[in-house]
Structures are given as C-alpha cells and as structure tokens.
Amino acid sequence: MPEGDTVWLAAHRLHEALADRVLTVSDLRVPRLATVDLTGRRVLGVVPRGKRLLTRCEGGLTLHSHLRMEGSWRVFAADERPRGGPWHEIRAVLGNASRTAVGYRLPVLDLLPTEDEHRVVGHLGPDLLGPDWDPGAAAARLVRDPARPLADALLDQRNLAGIGNVYACELAFLARVSPWLPVGDLPGDVPLRLVTTAHRLLEANKTRSDRTTTTARTPGRLHVYGRGGRPCPRCGTPVARAGPEPGRNERVTYWCRGCQPGPAP
C-alpha cells in the first residue's frame, strides 16, 4: 500500500493537471459509475487525505479514490498515449484540453456529494501531511489500545493517517524497539517522538520519488526495510525479515534483532 507521501505527490500532480480546468473527458470504468458523465464540470482541486484522494468538481461532487496496494494515477499530455498498464486495467480517465489523468487498477472509486466526504475520511486520525496534523492527538490515539503491537498501531489509519509498511518498519528501528512491542510498553515520550519523526520524514519525502529515511552519513536510503540479511547500519547484526506465510496476504516486516529489543514473531 502506498505511503502517505506517495499519495500526497500523486494528489499534487493531479491538482496541477486538472484544477481550475473544465473536464472534456470523463470515463469511469466501474459498473456503478458507468453512466456518470463529469464533462463540462470544472475541477476545483485534488486533495489527499491520508492514503485517499479526493477530486472535487463543480456542482458539489467529489470523486474518491483509494490506491491500496496496486492502484496508481498517471498524468499525460492530452494527445499522448497512456502508459502504465494494459488498457483493461484503466478504471478512470479525466481529461481537459491539455492534460489527461488516468487511474490504473483503482480498487476503490466512488462518487459522492462533497458535503458527504466525511463518510469516507471522517474515521481517519490526524493526517501526517494535512492541515489537521496534531502530534499530541496522534500520540494519544497510537497508545489507546495498550496491548496492540507497535507496527499494527502505526498502520491503523484511525490512529494517524499516512503511514504504510515502509515507515512502520523504519520508525520502529529509529525508536530502537521491536515492531511487535505492545504500545503500552513504550517508554515515556516515545509515542510523541514516533509521530513527530513520522511527520518529519513524510514532509521531507513528499515531493520526491526516491524516498529516504537515513542521514547523509548512513549508507543506503532506508535503514531496515527491504534489507533482509544485510548488516544493520547501526550495530551490524543481519537485518531480520518476517512474513508473509505462503498463501497469506500479509505485510513483510524488517527489523534488527540486535538493536531493537522486545518481542519477535
């Protein structure tokens, strides 16, 4: 599932291509929206909310999309042939006189009144890259279920919106705790430091495609994620990898047994 910074960048690119322009192409390729025609409506803006995208149009309508694991939006010149996957994987096409936005493999695509956006995003916690960001509220939500493992709590968008598996692994490493440590066992100010670090990292990465969580003095772009079996940049212990079991749709977790003490799977 894309991280919040990836979704923010997608929203930024869609906004640049579509905002303040009248739609001349509207093709929503999901059964319940097959007869919807948004041509003639001006796009008011495209905003991210956690891992969701809200494309607001004149007339009080919002097209809501969620990328989940496989979805993506790509922007092309109006006369350019779309590239991003087979034609049958396209779920949405929105275009104007100069740009065309194409949504591939979108598992969630809904049209709803703009005034009802709360139905799809109202349950989300403070948005790491949004105007509602509140580190105190996010830290309090993170630990409200004391027995819950840290990585699970970080990935729960009801606690704070925007963290995916990459950041969950990297944040646990930076905090020097196991991803499976119950959040109730986190020392004193660690929850607040975790969410503050998450906000700093997503802000730093939101305009770039080559995400990094390391400093210039640390080799590589990530500390542990995707580095199974390679030396931990902090202590040299081989980075461990857990999951998924064959046939199960689970996330892969990376951590260092040497400098991230606590429970392990």
UniProtKB/TrEMBL annotation:
PROSITE patterns reported for this sequence: FPG_CAT, ZF_FPG_1, ZF_FPG_2
Keyword DNA repair (UniProt): yes
Calcium found in the keyword field: no
Pfam family, one: Fapy_DNA_glyco
InterPro entries for this protein: DNA_glyclase_Znf_dom_DNA_BS, FPG_cat, FPG_N, H2TH_FPG, Nei2_N, Ribosomal_uS13-like_H2TH, Znf_DNA_glyclase/AP_lyase
Domain FPG-type span(s) in chain numbering: 223-261
Limits of the Formamidopyrimidine-DNA glycosylase catalytic domain: 2-130
Alphabetic keyword roster: DNA damage, DNA repair, DNA-binding, Glycosidase, Hydrolase, Lyase, Metal-binding, Multifunctional enzyme, Zinc, Zinc-finger
Family as reported in the entry's similarity comment: Belongs to the FPG family.
Protein name: DNA-(apurinic or apyrimidinic site) lyase
Species assigned in the record: Streptomyces sanyensis
